[in-house]
Amino acid sequence: MNFLQAYRTGFGWILKFKRAVFLAYLINLLLVIIPGFVIADRIQASLGHSQASLNLVEGYDDLWYKSFSSTARGLASTFHPTLAAEGALWDGLDRFLTGNLFQVQSGLSYLFALYWLLWIFLSAGFINLFLDREQSLFTGGAIFFFRFLVLGILAAIIYWLILGKLYPYLNHLMKSFTRETTDERIIYRYAVIKYAFLWGLIYLVNIIVDYSKVMMVFENHRNILKGISAAFKFISKHLKGVLLLYLLTGLSWLILAFIYGYLAPGIHQSTWSTVLMAFLFSQLYILLRIATRCWFYSGEAALVTASTSQ
């Protein structure tokens, strides 16, 4: 099976297990809905029946936001105008490309940890579902959760070393190289090289972690190091297919993201019907984003299944 066949097979598995994907979406929604109501309550308390509440119906009120953010604590401190409409997408992409993706505000640290544990469980469940269709999402998650957790901790340490240690070092190195340079083109080239190297390394680690998960389930490795070793062997043997499949699936996610960024309703929603439509549209994007995340796993599982059976 080549990478295109694995790509199509993975998409077919997503459609086949669409109920599990929708269930994962509902779990994600339940995780954030209570914090969302908490933030909404703080905003409502701040606005009351003031003129700012009327101004926000028509658009953005910067004066109110500055007053609100100066006193906001905990979850309320995480509210920012960039989270509205396509702003959340561009803010996420900016944090991703600049290496700030794992810098979490204090008000969201416990929620981020819970979300991380949830997706360790769900990733175990989905990969097991794609490889062993007789078991449910929750059964697979329970069987492989602790193995995936150890792997996740190891991956988190590596990501921290890359973004927390290597990234600042590259910034320092770039400044030393360009300290006496006035040509912006040279500085730009150094920046491109820096980010290409950094995120190429991140993607490589991510690919190895993904295939380690797949191999642990496929070959039922209880030893994490054996799963990682099996992943290295598979990737080195099928490097071209692994990279092309990852890039193609990643391109599908980028197309989805940019379509949402182009079509996402703005902040000028002043009636319940338009607010509801904006909410439903954003939730559809989140559902498809979760499906795309599962597509990575299903495509990789399809490639491993077909390649090792030949």
Can you describe what's shown?
By secondary structure, the protein is mostly helical. The protein has one domain (3-309). The chain contains 11 helices and no strands. Helix 2 packs antiparallel against helix 11, helix 6 packs across helix 11 and helix 10 runs antiparallel to helix 11. It is globular.
- Provide the structure class: mainly alpha
Biggest sheet, in brief? none
Number of helices: 11
Low-pLDDT windows of residues: none
**What is the averaged pLDDT score?**
83
Computed over alpha carbons, the radius of gyration is 22 Å
Helix content: over 70%
DSSP strand content: under 5%
- SS elements, strand count: 0
Kindly, what is the distance between the CA atoms of the first and last residues, rounded to a whole number of angstroms?
Answer: 9 Å
- How would you sum up the global shape? globular
Task: Please trace the helix and strand order, writing H or E for each element.
Answer: HHHHHHHHHHH
Number of domains: 1
In a few lines, what is going on in this structure?
The chain has 310 residues and is mainly α. It contains eleven helices and no strands. It has helices at residues 3-16, 18-47, 51-58, 62-71, 87-97, 109-131, 137-178, 184-218, 224-237, 239-263, 272-309.
